[in-house]
Amino acid sequence: MGTFTLIEMTARPGGLPALVAALSEAWSPRPPDRLRGCWSVDLGVLNRVIVLAEGGQPVELPLGTVHSDIEVTRSVWHGLPDLMLPSPGKHGPCYELRCYDVLPDRIADVHAAFLGALPTRCALSPLLIAMQSADGAPRFAHIWPYAGLDARQAIRADAVATGQWPPPVSSFLAGRMTAEIMWPLTFSPLQ
């Protein structure tokens, strides 16, 4: 599927509106060519904006005067082979980003279990992207679009009821598992 950069911008309390305004002012007329998605976190770690960009090179962030109030982390990820990122357009508007720390040398096991369970899971709702970290500690992440929070809850309950989801990966994980609910900013190619 290719290489992606995940940029996580965390604003100080009260600073999210200024961060969103700076990004919107710069990117609303014309988002960067490599930008695939840009979301504000609603549930999870708050005061954050998540950017998904194609390629492993940095994306210039138009933070202007708010830069000193923003913590930025960038990580490079490889998309799982044979999974295509959907075209820009409306897929959500509710997105869930799930990320897991993986034990050393167990990422292949996570891939196999995830890919094995994916057909049953994707019959209920489409996957946006699944990827593994290319830098730092081994991690696995996936993003799912939903029509809303109620749809997410119903689809996840149906997925668990199949007995095929979640995939049996717990013995391969290092411990930390996170989930964040995100909503696209107005200029995000993925809505």
TrEMBL record:
Alphabetical list of InterPro entries matching this protein: Dimeric_a/b-barrel (IPR011008), NIPSNAP (IPR012577), NipSnap_domain (IPR051557)
Domain NIPSNAP: 95-189
Chain ranges passing through the membrane: none
Pfam families assigned: NIPSNAP
Coiled coil: none
PANTHER family, sorted: NIPSNAP-RELATED (PTHR21017), PROTEIN NIPSNAP (PTHR21017:SF17)
Similarity remark: Belongs to the NipSnap family.
Name of this protein: NIPSNAP family protein
Protein's organism: Tanticharoenia sakaeratensis NBRC 103193
